[in-house]
Amino acid sequence: GAAALGGSLPASAAGGEVLSTAQALERLSLVMARLDMHVGQLSSSGVGTIFSLPAEHEMHSLLRQVGAIVSCCVPRDESALALAQKVFKRMFEQASGGAGRLHTQINVQLLMRIDAVCKKVARFVTDVLVYSEDERKLNEDIVASLIHAQARPSSLHHRLVTAPPPSHRVMDAR
Q: Which strand (E) or helix (H) includes residue 26?
């Protein structure tokens, strides 16, 4: 269960708990389930963007928890990439639903929180978007959301805007 999630591993030198990749993935799943619950509520009440939520809304606290989860992982890079893969896959699965834009915003925020702790996440996201044969990567809303995720440049933003052009056109010329 969730209460037993880190009990068998030793505490880190900083005094916090240490999580395995499997434990981190389980905690991420719990956070994402709560985020999905909120997305459903917000979508049914007409909220179209997470950026209109007040700072004290629980969604912001849930998003912050993801960075803390990654910070507790050993090995950190491997765990962060496993979490990023899970979020990235979920982003494309949720993009076409009625609350697709809200889900995309949440998933981009999750990736940014993971990237803030492990810079290898930006390369993973870029590589998938640039080199993957999967046609889903051409989802314009997701690509635009990833590129414009943050006003200040993050490593994720920098990798996406400086990546070599993909073999397929990502967005139609307008």
A: helix 21-44
Q: Is residue 115 within 8 Å of residue 77, measured between CB atoms?
A: no
User: Is residue 81 within 8 Å of residue 120, measured between CB atoms?
Assistant: yes
Residue whose entry in the numeric block shows the structure tokens 């076409």: 96
> Of all helices (H) and strands (E), which one includes residue 35?
helix 21-44
The rounded distance, in Å, linking the Cα atoms of 48 and 141 is 14
Q: Which one-letter DSSP state was computed for residue 74?
A: S
pLDDT tens string 124-174: 888 888 887 777 667 788 888 887 774 344 555 555 556 555 444 444 433
d(Cα 102, Cα 34) in Å, to the nearest integer? Answer: 14
Backbone angles phi, psi at 164, to 5 degrees: -65, 150
108-114-117-118 Cα dihedral, nearest 10 degrees: -100
Kindly report whether the global pTM for this prediction surpasses the value 0.85: no
d(CA 121, CA 113): 10
Cis peptide before 75 (omega within 30 of 0): yes
Instruction: Say how far apart CA 155 and CA 124 lie, in whole Å.
Output: 11
Going by C-alpha positions, the residue among 136, 116, 137, 118 that lies closest to residue 126 is 137
